[in-house]
Design a protein that fits this description.
38% of the residues lie in helices and 18% in strands. By secondary structure, the chain is α/β, with parallel strands linked by helices. Strands 1-2-5-4-3-6-12-8-13-11 form a ten-stranded mixed sheet, sandwiched between helices. The protein is globular and about 55 Å long. The structure holds 2-acetamido-2-deoxy-beta-D-glucopyranose (NAG) (3 copies).
């Protein structure tokens, strides 16, 4: 339980941490930096314990629009490592309220407070300023306040104006907020199976050398199940009942399908993870989710909105000669089977076409960074099938 006085204290503490003004003067947050188009504010709400995790842990690196912020409660219970989460706020006018709600979410949930550091970014006001004045809406952790806050998150998420979601800026900013040597970067809607970090930890030091990433099979499961599948056999039982599929199975076909799934399902279950198979980039549009060292290429921030925003990084891994080692016994699930309607496809078509153009430029820009012609031919051959 967080008492009102403590909550106010945490707001004040935040201001003291981020600026030199005494608490009594007009509160300002000075450490938001205008970088390019956005005001970036790292660790606006830091995790409470700084010594709970080691450098050798895996940070769950995630970003989300505000309506998904309450999902942090699930992650903080499932993920046995630190979490670094970025939220995009599409108008500076929403910043004070959003921060007070994020503080309620963080301060009222011991698991989130312990594990999660939160970062935000937002467009500056019209005079280029990142300034905002604090606004305190909620001051206690009773159930009603928390439910109200969850509702307000969804209203704050409604776009103020149509602008494509700067997804790769969000991903990179969350990643810069991670302090560990290893990362798992995934959308907030993808929930890991329990004990993930412990199952994978013994593999990290030996497998992640030599330009390898550890691929985490990703799935979507029917909405409204009473519990998440905790292990592969529970997940397989769902798959056989038509209640679990590869992630985005009905949306982008093979983009998340693992090779040799028939074997993966029946290989040893429970216990530690191990490498199930080692493959190069195998298929057009294959965009696996993976655990990596913190030195993999960043996402290209020109990609905004739907289309190519993730595949561009995987393509770069291919050009950089990375190998993909597929993990056993660990996975992530999306709790809804996602199908886009014709109208929804029509809405994202402009973003797809814009991002396709950016991708063609991006691809050629890599030629000087990775001049190996043989590798380029291989990666392009895979990529070209997609363009047909
Ligand atoms: C910019 O605008 C904000 C309000 O949006 C105001 O508080 C601030 O003083 C302005 N800054 C400058 C440098 O004009
Ligand atoms: C990593 O690469 C080096 C040099 O290419 C090689 O000697 C070593 O065996 C490789 N290690 C692993 C774990 O593959
Ligand atoms: C897998 O999880 C289910 C519950 O979801 C449990 O009943 C079963 O014992 C678990 N199997 C193994 C091998 O851990």
């Amino acid at each position: 339980m967080l008492y009102p006085a403590l909550f106010v204290f945490s707001v004040v503490g935040l201001l003291i941490n981020s600026g030199s003004l005494p608490a009594s003067s007009e509160p300002r947050v000075k450490d938001a930096q205008l970088r390019g188009q956005y005001c970036m504010q790292q660790n606006i709400i830091p995790r409470q314990s700084s010594d709970l995790f080691s450098h050798d842990d895996i940070t769950f690196v995630t970003q989300a629009s505000l309506n998904h912020a309450p999902l942090l409660r699930r992650h903080a219970r499932l993920w046995d490592g630190p979490i670094s989460a970025t939220f995009f706020i599409d108008s500076i006018l929403k910043v004070p309220k959003t921060i007070s709600l994020l503080q309620l979410l963080h301060g009222c949930d011991e698991a989130i407070a312990r594990t999660t550091s939160i970062h935000i970014f937002y467009p500056p006001s019209s005079n280029g300023s990142c300034f905002w004045s604090p606004h305190i809406v909620a001051d206690n952790c009773d159930r009603q306040s928390i439910e109200d806050a969850d509702f307000v998150f969804s209203t704050l998420a409604k776009p103020s104006q149509t602008q494509p979601y700067p997804i790769n800026i969000a991903r990179n900013f969350a990643r810069k907020g991670a302090i560990t040597k290893y990362l798992l970067t995934a959308d907030i809607e993808l929930l890991p199976n329990p004990g993930f970090v412990d199952k994978v930890r013994p593999l990290l030091a030996s497998e992640l050398r030599n330009k390898t990433v550890l691929v985490v099979p990703s799935f979507e499961i029917a909405a409204g199940l009473s519990e998440l599948p905790a292990n592969k056999s529970a997940l397989y039982a769902l798959a056989r009942k038509g209640k679990a599929f590869a992630f985005h199975h009905f949306r982008s076909g093979m983009c998340h399908q693992m090779p040799n799934m028939e074997k993966w399902w029946i290989s040893g279950d429970g216990g530690q993870s191990r490498v199930f198979a080692r493959v190069p980039w195998i298929r057009p549009c294959w965009e696996p989710i993976f655990v990596s060292q913190a030195d993999v290429p960043y996402y290209d921030e020109r990609f905004k909105g739907y289309g190519k925003n993730k595949i561009q990084q995987v393509y770069e891994l291919c050009r950089d000669n990375y190998r993909f080692a597929i993990l056993d016994n660990v996975f992530v699930v999306h709790e809804k089977i996602s199908i886009l309607s014709k109208e929804e496809w029509a809405k994202i078509r402009p973003a797809i076409s814009r991002n396709n153009d950016i991708f063609q430029r991006f691809r050629r820009e890599l030629d000087s960074k990775y001049p190996n012609a043989r590798v380029r031919q291989y990666c392009d051959a895979i990529q070209t099938v997609l363009a047909l």
